[in-house]
Sequence to fold (613 residues):
Amino acid sequence: MIDIIQLLPDHVANQIAAGEVVQRPASVVKELLENAIDADATEIKLIVKDAGKTLVQIIDNGKGMSVTDARLSFERHATSKIRSAEDLFQLNTKGFRGEALASIAAIAHVDLKTKRPEDELGTAIEIEGSIVKSQDVSVTPSGTSVAVKHLFFNIPARRNFLKSDTVELRHITDEFHRVALAHPSIAFAYYNNGSELFNLPQENYRQRIVHIFGSKTNEKLVPVEEETEVLKISGFVGKPEFSKKTKSEQFFFVNNRFIKSPYLNHAINAAFEGLLKDGYHPSYFLNLTVDPKTIDINIHPTKTEIKFDDEHTLYAILRSSVKHSLGQFNIAPVLDFEHQSNFNTPYNYKDKTASAPGVEVDKNFNPFSEGSGKNTFSYKQTPTASWESLYVGLESKGNNTKPNFGEVTFESDSKSESIFGDGSIETTKTTFQLQQKYIVSTIKSGMLIIDQNRAHQRVLYEKFLKHITIKEATSQQLLFPLQLHFTPSETKIIRDLKSDLEHTGFVFSELNDSEVTITGVPVGVPESEVSIILEQLISDVENDVPDANFSSTDLLAKSMAKSLAIKNGQSLNSNEQEHMVNSLFACKEPNVSPTNRPTFITLGVDDIEKKFM
Fold:
């Protein structure tokens, strides 16, 4: 019988391993940045072209590699961090499996240049699809430069699964943020298509957060410090009033490694309980230091998930530490039933001595005698006319007859007959609201049930799409300019969509890297909703909602409609209900919402009769 089990060729095995390690250009960025940090670099430069699809290059000034190490680094499971299985539970470095460079080289063109400080010349290696094309001596500065070109060149199917450049660049930026926040003592520079996105010097943790997320972030931060035998916590949480509808500013670092932990995230939310509006998420930048023996970081290929030895203790410590910081800095409300605020001494009376009050009494004062005695109280009596003058005019001239109140007439509302006849016809209500979510209306064949949120989205979507297309939207000017603060990457998205936003009615007076000043908004858009609209728009663009195949105009109209549509739970009067029904069926496609979900259903008389059988 023929044997059916065979060993895979090396190039196929490498491509399978690459599927675990390299999912998109951001995965390459993460692996190479971590390698540069492990090489003790103090300056790291990240260069990308076409969102990493054409080029991802990392240049560092670390300790470099020898000729043998440079060649061996592209072999699978070749690592300098692990000597025995026990070393897996004593890790203090980033990469340790020895799969990154081998996997990347299997699906891309890789150019490596490296030199140790003690060597006069370095090494240059070119690899294409796991095949070494050349290895030469090179004149290069100390450190390592790794250029990854034409990612997935030999796996077109994987390349087709990549999203648009905007989305892929957002993923790269996220990885850059995670690494840069974890290592504020290292200088980072980040370039995309020749333009500088970030240039971060060596600094402390607070300065690093401010440089990445904008100068306005400084006033949002509340420090968190706690040290126990099990866990050391340091970092910052954001004030509740600056919470966001997205989770873009939530960072956990365990031993300087970024992780995702829904369990620990729940601890933060529990600490903010009662302080956040519904649908908003807190911001936090927290560093957790634990014993490496109490965690397992080898449970996920991307190493972003960690298994803790005692999660319940970490949960309790983290929750209480954040809550203590919020209370310590007067962020959380405090109830003190023993303290009486009316006993507080004003600051300007703190050092004054009490003086005894003095009372002067005039013993000769007689209130019943006029002008007698000396009046201590300066009471001055104003002469008035005699009391008879109050009744002047009540008697008619020359006649003492009493007034006849029977002749008095009163004003009353005039009765006007209805223009439809005798007014006996009662107006009937054609619509009513169900559970403050659905609008129910009658039709000839039965009943119409409309989802008010989806219906309003469809109405607003077609309205905004029309305004952007014909470029004739009206704008209402704000009495005071509205200043909003965003990160540099977020303002870049707004800058790219500025012309389309202006066609919907927005008016921008200033748009720089960290601040957006708006002087006009579309008619009907409340000023309080502007920041929510722009945050939702940025989130949709970053996550490529609905897809890269749609135009930015369509995406903008969808995002604004989603932000401004009335929510489920909002009460509507009869006129608003009827207006919603009429507006929906005036649309070109009233059947579905902008996200292709049904806006209404019909319930025929036959369907209703079947329920009574």
Remarks:
- The radius of gyration is 37 Å.
- The chain has three domains: 10-200, 205-328, 438-602.
- Residues 416-428 have pLDDT under 50 and may be disordered.
- DSSP finds 16 helices and 22 strands in the chain.
